[in-house]
Write a structure and sequence with these properties.
Layout: E1 4-9, E2 18-23, E3 33-39, H1 43-55, H2 67-85, E4 88-94, H3 102-119, H4 123-154
Helix pairs in contact: 1-2, 3-4
């Protein structure tokens, strides 16, 4: 591996920092996308699931006297029906940090600068850095809450808004 970058990560949570290694720097644009596997659930798949459950006789489940065998048999049949009715679907999602405002971004940059300064200097700058972190954490929470509340209020379907 010849193409890599080592970055220093300032997390602001403790006095320990981390290192991150990024390989294949030509493929950095794909970091904004995540692949997520979900089950396809809608009216048709739910109906299919209910129909398949209603036609199941459960003969193999009750053919034994051992409770563990009966449970495993039930679970296998149930999961077989569940997986066949609700197939897996691969979705490509993008990371969106709409809550990161210009002010939050500027504050984060200033916090990184303070962290660098506090590691190389006396105790008073480290205390200032800690105070800045205590102030910034609630501000980030408020920014996130405000953003998600706006999304929910503007959405026509609350379940799909976030």
């Amino acid at each position: 591996m010849e193409n890599y970058i080592i970055c220093l990560l300032f997390n602001g949570l403790s006095d320990h920092n981390a290192q991150r290694t990024v390989f294949n720097t030509t493929n950095l644009e794909s970091q904004n996308h995540q692949i997520q596997t979900i089950r396809k659930i809608n009216k048709h798949t739910i109906t299919d699931f209910l129909i398949k459950l209603s036609y199941e006789t459960w003969d193999t489940t009750f053919s034994s006297n051992d409770v563990n065998i009966m449970f495993n048999s039930f679970l296998n049949e149930y999961l077989r029906i569940l997986y066949s009715s609700f197939p897996l679907k691969v979705c490509k999602t993008t990371k969106s940090n709409d809550w990161i405002t210009i002010a939050v971004n500027t504050s984060c940059k200033h916090k990184k600068e303070l962290d660098l300064a506090s590691t190389n200097s006396n105790n008073s700058e480290f205390k200032y850095y800690q105070q800045y972190c205590k102030i910034m954490s609630p501000l980030i929470k408020v920014a996130k809450k405000f953003n998600y509340n706006n999304k929910i209020q503007k959405s026509s379907t609350i379940n799909k808004s976030v």
